[in-house]
């Protein structure tokens, strides 16, 4: 079989020279539009994924927690230890801690009651006084008989909440973090947030 020889100066040889020359030029190449599209799509997907994961993690609202909470009267009579959270919808720290509270609640809800008492509801005035609520969120940890074993006020590490709830669930005589005060909202703010019936003004 005859071999095909390409002589210098032939058409095929010139093509290869042109290709070599163009790849070595200093002219900037036009960006590949497909790569730009792929980067844009990947960036968008990453942003959506980040949003969704944040939404899933922080998507638990105080309203969700309140809806899932055990009624206070039931919690005091069912023979299980109880965590009472005094909160308000306007309380930033309360909202911030909601996902952590939810995770702990999901882990222990079969062994510990989780009660949510809104400080804006005048129905809970007696409990606010009884538990000495001055800042929110205010977490009170009660044993099976309803005796307060400790309380944590304000922003707390999830670890503290978890360890206290775990101690309650195991029937320990006390909770490891019995008196902790972090950054909190003043419960006195509830007076500003009370809704006054406009009909009561002449």
TrEMBL record:
Belongs to the thioredoxin family. It comes from the Eukaryota. GO terms for cellular component: chloroplast. Keywords: Chloroplast, Disulfide bond, Electron transport, Plastid, Redox-active center, Transit peptide, Transport. Residues 16-25 have a biased composition (Polar residues). Its main location: plastid. Pfam families: Thioredoxin (PF00085). Residues 1-25 are annotated as: Disordered. PROSITE patterns: THIOREDOXIN_2. This is Thioredoxin-like protein HCF164, chloroplastic. It is found in: Plastid, Chloroplast. Residues 21-170 form the Thioredoxin domain. PANTHER family: THIOREDOXIN-LIKE PROTEIN HCF164, CHLOROPLASTIC.
């Amino acid at each position: 079989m005859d071999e095909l020889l390409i002589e210098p100066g032939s058409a095929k040889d010139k093509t290869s020279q042109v290709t070599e020359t163009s790849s070595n030029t200093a002219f900037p190449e036009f960006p590949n539009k497909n790569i730009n599209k792929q980067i844009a799509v990947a960036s968008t997907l990453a942003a959506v994924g980040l949003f969704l994961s944040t939404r899933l993690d922080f998507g638990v609202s105080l309203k969700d927690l309140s809806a899932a909470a055990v009624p206070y009267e039931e919690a005091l009579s069912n023979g299980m230890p109880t965590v009472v959270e005094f909160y308000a919808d306007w309380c930033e720290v309360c909202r911030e801690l909601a996902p952590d509270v939810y995770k702990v609640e999901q882990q222990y809800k079969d062994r510990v009651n989780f009660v949510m008492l809104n400080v804006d509801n005048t129905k809970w005035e007696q409990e606010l006084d009884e538990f000495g609520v001055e800042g929110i969120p205010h977490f009170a940890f009660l044993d099976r008989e309803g005796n307060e074993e400790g309380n944590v006020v304000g922003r707390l590490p999830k670890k503290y909440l978890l360890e206290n709830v775990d101690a309650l669930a195991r029937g320990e005589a006390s909770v490891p973090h019995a008196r902790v005060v972090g950054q909190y909202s003043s419960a006195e703010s509830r007076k500003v947030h009370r809704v006054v019936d406009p009909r009561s003004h002449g």
